[in-house]
Specification:
The longest helix is centred in the N-terminal third of the chain and has 17 residues. A hairpin with a 2-residue loop joins strand 1 and strand 2. It contains three helices and eleven strands; from the N terminus they run ββαβαββββαββββ. The protein starts with a strand and ends with a strand. It has one domain: 3-Layer(aba) Sandwich (Rossmann fold). It is of the alpha/beta class and about 180 residues long. The strands form two sheets. Strands 3, 4, 5, 6, 7, 8 and 9 form a seven-stranded mixed beta sheet that branches. The chain has a four-stranded antiparallel beta sheet with strand order 1-2-11-10. Bound molecules: inosinic acid (IMP) and magnesium ion (MG). The site of inosinic acid has 14 residues, from strand 7 and helix 3.
């Protein structure tokens, strides 16, 4: 299966369920190898929820026992890549002082969202803030940020599935795809 049709949209598979599962396992092993202390995992909602759910279970398999709390951020894009604003729609309830934190997001593009979250948690006294992203789109970076862990380099296309949406649709797809016909 290399593409599917849903409600008149044709979606081409970019990263299959099996490929994703393999990378998720690798990332969990990579996190475990850092031997994090008092690990708190913070998925950045909404797009990361499926990746985070799979990564958390893989982290259990890798011998880790993290706590989990959630953050929801909205980033407003300005016309120029040098500006743009991030707003906290839902904050974590956990005190991060002295803890190792792993932020999880779906896509790293401009880097603004994760740079904002990372700075915020570091300013609150986290011992270390690591980042894991499923996809890296390196072409549009505005903030100085590289993910500590990433699943795949992603072509410069709008992608959906595995938690990611187009106008709230397609989050349920078990693979990452791009919409070739709308
Ligand atoms: P940035 O790194 O601050 O630019 O934020 C990247 C965020 O933009 C991701 O977490 C997604 O929510 C969203 N995003 C970027 N590219 C795509 C895409 O191709 N499909 C769906 N969401 C995207
Ligand atoms: Mg997002």
């Amino acid at each position: 299966m290399s593409s599917i049709e849903i409600d008149g949209h044709r979606i081409k598979v970019l990263f299959s369920e099996a490929e994703i599962a393999g990378r998720v396992k690798d990332i969990a092993a990579g996190v475990a190898a850092r031997q994090p202390q008092k690990l708190l995992v913070v998925p950045v909602l909404k797009g990361s929820f499926i990746f985070a759910a799979d990564l958390l279970r893989a982290m259990h398999g890798a011998g880790l026992s993290p706590e989990v709390d959630f953050m929801m951020l909205a980033s407003y894009r300005a016309r120029t890549s040098s500006s743009g604003r991030v707003e906290v729609l839902r904050d974590i309830e956990t005190d991060v002082r002295g803890r190792d934190v792993l932020l999880i997001d779906d896509i790293l593009e401009s880097g603004r969202t994760l740079a904002y979250a990372k700075d915020l948690l570091a300013a609150r006294g986290a011992r270390q803030v690591m980042t894991a992203v499923l996809l890296d789109k390196p072409g549009h970076r505005a903030a100085e940020l590289d993910a500590d862990f990433k699943g795949f380099d992603c072509p410069d296309r709008f992608v959906v599935g595995y938690g990611m949406d187009m106008a709230h649709a397609f989050r349920e797809l078990p693979f990452v795809g791009h919409v070739v016909k709308t």
